[in-house]
Amino acid sequence: MSSRVEAGARRAPNxxxxxxxxxxxxxxxxxxxxxxxxxxxxxxxAVLVMLLAAYGLLEAxxxxxxxxxxxxxxxxxAERIVALPAGIPPLxxxxxxxxxxxxGLVFFLNGILPGRRARHVLSRAxxxxxxxxxxxxxxxxxxxxxxxxxxxxxxxxxxVMVVVSRRQVLVNVRPTSGVPVDEGTVLxxxxxxxxxxxxxxxxxxxxxxxxxxVIGA
Length: 217
Fold this sequence. Notes:
Blueprint: H1 3-7, E1 9-11, H2 26-34, H3 39-64, H4 74-83, H5 90-112, E2 119-121, H6 125-128, E3 134-137, H7 138-153, E4 160-164, E5 168-173, H8 183-197, E6 204-209
Parallel strand pairs: 5-6
Antiparallel strand pairs: 1-3, 2-3, 4-5
């Protein structure tokens, strides 16, 4: 396995390191390393709800003691909401609606999407629950694959670009003018490198060799 991958790997805690001798649940550890947290969005939502509730209590308290409203009377606010869109310019109403729709979409997508990070698991030991797992950033994997593809194609680093996603590895190679590149050789090299890594999930490989070459140094 490439030293670059090893250098950029994140090794999950050893399952034998727990205080009770049984160790942590490796599936949960890997899930936490490969999925982004919803804590920030949840905190923002909670703060917004708290502010809205605090304002409602403030206006209700001021109204209960017979003092003038801080911003608007609760009854007046309710009447204006019921009367919408009367009394509000269409442009302002559209802008408010767009902002609310965008905020709702952000919270909705954060709630239903898996929130995966750009990382892969190198070891499948976690599936059996019996060993440590190594989590690596996709950028590190792409760097290692680009090096392997460059050696297989006999080109410079600037002539190879690798993009790694969860389900696909895309390898773009620009050959040197007058020196053909065998796509099968590059594909076999990438397959061998990925086989040594043992990525989970295993991505598909796509190799593109440009029709036009670059002038060699």
